[in-house]
Amino acid sequence: MAAGITLVAAAGVALAQGGSPEPAADLILRGGTVYPGNAAPFKGDVAIRGDRIVYVGPKAPGTATKIIDATGMIVAPGFIDTHTHVNGALASGDPAARLVMPFLTQGVTTAFIGVDGGGDPDVARTFGRDSGAKGGEGEAALGQSSRDYGINFATYVGLGAVRLKVIGPDDRAPTPEELAKMQGLVSSAMCQGALGLSTGLFYAPQSFAKRDEVVALAKAAAEKGGIYDSHLRDESSYTIGLKGAVAEAIEIGREAGIPVHIAHIKALGVDVQGQAQAIIDQIEAAQKAGQVIHADQYPWSASGTGLSAALIPRWAQNGGRRALLERFENPSVMAKMRPEIADNLRRRGGPASLLITSGPADAEGKTLEQIAKARGIDPIDAAIAILKQREAGVASFNQSEADIAAFMNRPWVVTSSDASQGHPRYYASFARKYANYVRDKQVIDLRAFIDRSTAVTADMFSLDGRGHLKAGAFADVIMFDPARFAPRADYIHPALFSTGMRTVVVNGVIAIENGEPTGAAGGRPLPRQPKPGSCR
Fold it and tell me: How far apart are CA 399 and CA 72, in angstroms?
């Protein structure tokens, strides 16, 4: 580490002694405990000029326009969240929403969207750019964003969005012509800057896609240098089981020749709790055989999904919501459906384990068990009554702490939130991981938490200039109070900002100062550069 500091310091001295009467830096964070990312911490300074870091070391040379006392604080790269659902906030017409303040107050400066197969194939539109812009070498070739954002973000192109565009919600395989069209949409999205292909094979209509279809689209992403990101077909025991779903993801990666990223890795439900070590062994065997495989994890025992996804069998969702509502009114179909709903409810831990987080107003904030008792009906009937009104979101309490800890301790598992409204993970995932699993339970240490929320993540996804504190890197820098960094949001009050994040800098712009938002927007779209020569 000492040699690294010397090299970086030399760059800072050169800048300070360049003969300019201006200060050597715009901002210095002085005297904190610096965690540079994949390197040992030390006491020292971080200096920023423009959108770049110009010095990391024991004492920044020269002067600065602004100096923040970081004594007693932790200074780190901005956190990177690899799995989020903040598409709506970033696409909002409200500049305040585009700041994504729940993320900034946790120190998250970069997020991935378009996950679970939902990524719009019009990636340029997602980035707020000219949709006619095509790939090429360099960010300028992809156009410029017309909006201000609080955070940086990258996006996937999604199997679900592509399939809906070409096939619709039906349970069938694509024709050869349709498959070629889907591959073309993936290729075009990659040339517009997509990270790769995301899938949500658990969800209809993506669940209707067979492996050969997924491999064909993953190959289109691989040809442009992309990544295969997957919400597994089964995280529990619904169809092929957790082990079978992990095997499928590994096989897709092998057949398509593409790195595999497993989204929000978990053992979900009473049938598979305790399988974490077996899944770890399965993945690490593939890694030893030469495959690139990694995963992310959110630090909560409750997952978040839709009520229909949790309980309704996939065959009943063929054709979309209108077809499902018609099936609810068909006694013979319901005679077949009810036992499957009951089994899905069992594997989720029963009606007391499903908390309604969004949906009909009289259901929000209550468990399915509470709703059923209040209405004097069976929990299955209560679920169907809710779904007849509208789709509902649920927090599903279905994981064991032992499995969470086992996954969290693997060096290839990085931090994510799976942020969705109505679940506290939108407001508090990184704060909770620190407060609960680092400070209180000591499942991992502070350096592991920071590295796997910053540098390890940036290196996994080739985010050049992000995730590390070093001269020349983009100035995404955070400073938090190790005694006060903590979540306030919980399952009953899911929309409370976290505390203890004192300073957040995004591309050199101060977004949080003295723990308070400044209202400044420093974020940028981060298009992934396609493989050279692949987008001509």
Answer: 36
Q: 323 and 168 in contact (C-beta within 8 Å)?
A: no
- Count, in order, helices (H) and strands (E) of the chain: 19, 21
pTM to 2 decimals? 0.91
Helix ranges restricted to H, 268-359: 276-288, 307-311, 321-328, 331-347
The DSSP element (H or E) to which 76 belongs, if any, is: strand 74-77
pLDDT of residue 129: 76
The CA radius of gyration of the chain, in Å to the nearest whole number, is 24
Phi-psi region of 298 (alpha: psi -120 to 50; beta: other; left: phi over 0): beta
Residue in the block written with tokens 């997957």 = 230
> Where does residue 122 rank: exposed (0-12), middle (13-18), buried (19+ CB within 10 A)?
middle
Amino acid letter, residue 99: L
Beta strands in 146-292 (DSSP E): 152-155, 157-158, 196-200, 227-231, 260-262
Closest CA to 390 of 370, 365, 360: 360
Measuring CA to CA, which residue among 478, 402, 530, 381 is closest to residue 103? Answer: 478
| Helix (H) / strand (E) containing 42 | strand 42-49
> What are the residues whose beta carbons fall under 8 Å from the beta carbon of 149, sequence distance 6 or more?
90, 98, 99, 100, 521, 523, 524, 525
- Residue 205, preceding bond cis, omega within 30 degrees? yes
Q: How confident is the model at residue 22 (pLDDT cuts 50, 70, 90)?
A: low
Question: In this structure, how many other beta carbons lie within 10 angstroms of the beta carbon of residue 128?
Answer: 17
Max CA separation in the chain (angstroms): 84
pLDDT of residue 145: 63
In sequence order, the 6+-apart residues with CB closer than 8 A to the CB of 524 are 145, 149, 152, 507
Beta strands in 350-498 (DSSP E): 354-358, 393-397, 413-415, 477-480
Residue 223, φ and ψ in degrees, nearest 5: -60, -25
* Chain centre distance of CA 400: 21
Which residue is listed with tokens 């468990």?
367
Between the CA of residue 395 and those of 354, 420, 429, what are the distances in Å?
A: 6, 10, 14
CA-based torsion, 148, 153, 112, 300: positive or negative: negative
Q: How far is CA 30 from CA 33, 54, 75, 326, in A?
A: 9, 14, 9, 64
**For the chain, how many residues are written?**
536
Q: What are phi and psi of 471, to 5 degrees?
A: -60, 135
| Strand, helix or coil for residue 474 | strand
Distance CA 397, CA 384 (A): 20
Dihedral in degrees, nearest 10, Cα atoms 417, 422, 428, 433? -50
Mean of the pLDDT values across residues 384-391?
96
Using CA atoms, how far apart are residues 433 and 441, in angstroms rounded to an integer? 10
Please give the Cα distance from 58 to 1 (Å, whole number): 12
User: For residue range 42-95, what is the model confidence (pLDDT) as tens digits?
Assistant: 999 999 999 999 999 999 998 999 999 999 999 999 999 999 999 999 999 999
